[in-house]
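Before a colleague's protein record goes any further, I have to sign it off. I want your independent view on whether this chain really folds as the tokens say. The record follows directly below this note.
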Amino acid sequence: MPSLTRQMADFVLNLRYEDIPALSVKEAKRFLLDSLGCALAAVGNDDVKAMERFTAKLGGTPEATVIGSGLRTNAPNAALMNSLLVRALDYNDIFWEQDPSHPSDIIFGALSPAEAEGRDGREALAAIIIAYELELRWCLACFPGVREVGWHHATLTQLVSPFVAGRIYGLDADQLVAAAGISGSSHYTLGGVVAGHLTNMKNTADPLATQAGVLAALMAREGYEGPVEVIEGKEGFRHVLHNVELKPEILLQGLGEDFLITRCAYKPFPTEALTHQPLSAVQMAMQQNGLVAEDLAGIHVQTTTRGADILSDPSKYDPQTKETADHSLPYCVAAVAADGGVYPHSFDQEKLFNPRIRALLPKIKVVANAEIDALFPGTKRAIATLTTTDGRTFTETVDHAKGSPANPMSDDELVAKFRANAHGKVDGARQDAIIEAVWGFDRCGDLREFMQLLVV
């Protein structure tokens, strides 16, 4: 029987743009627009500027464009930079039915090589869809999910990104298998990057796994080899991650026939995904009852054990950095109560120490609810109870955050999110041009010209 990566390679090689359902193509464009807005919003962030300084010092063939600055560098470095821009605000997409992941982290594993190679929009869209179809299946195929046993989802991305880049680089089946073996044997990522006190690596781990796939595809194109059975072979994925049961039938089922991209969700807040239901519940209770922060004596949130543990440990009640704050459920709840929502500027250094937000933090209690755990991850319920200083209580329950398939964002809502993210980085006319270019991306013949729209 062919290896698992060989069967994935066959899917990558046999997928024709013409065979992709129109709804899946439309969703790929929607995720592209959402990702570009997230990237523009992150232009100028300290972590992004640091990585760009590093990237510029590396040099490289000027074949692909970095969003924002317009820096021209080689495709692997551009893929890393642009993926980091997409990821930096934790505002891009989320898929979480089993293992959690952000498949749009891989989009520039397609676009940066496509710009370098002179590929058109249709081929880039096909590669983006390959990214979603493989990443989502990896997320569904592991029991328990790799995140549940301490690994980051970049551990899955390392096994997807080489196929995405390999499609753009025109690799044959043996080269695709080699690329998967190179990347998939070298970028297992510890969950520690998103646990406890958080650093820049929270948002960089998955972009590094995307870059790894581009590098692996380029190495394989030159004849470099990697393990042929990197998943099922001796000391491969299944052997080493022995506390995870991988079900290959889920990994391969329906590839090229049943497209899963429409099951992925958009983020309504620039925060860790498990905060969205609690934030929505608090927001609803505040808005529907005309409450302001000064009315509150307490906020009691019931959520999953994960939400109560990882997102509400002691460090999350006194966040000192953006990376900790956007993974702090208490901070984000306080921001909703104080400001009506959570926005990219909610994590500016000055805002982190806003007195109204800080005054709310001791009033917030987050607890695990076993009944909610039993529903997870299919339903990510949250219950928020707000108690006012005059003794009134208001409770709201939310099962599906805005942007999920069960509570979808319309095109108009998605465009509004894009414009809010792009505001202050590009003017309205440029925003219009980007939106038009994305909706017509299948007709794009020059990705370099497209990328110039994203230079600030």
Remarks:
- Residues 22-42 form the longest helix (21 residues).
- Strands lie at 64-65, 72-73, 95-96, 100-101, 142-143, 245-246, 296-303, 364-368, 382-388, 393-398.
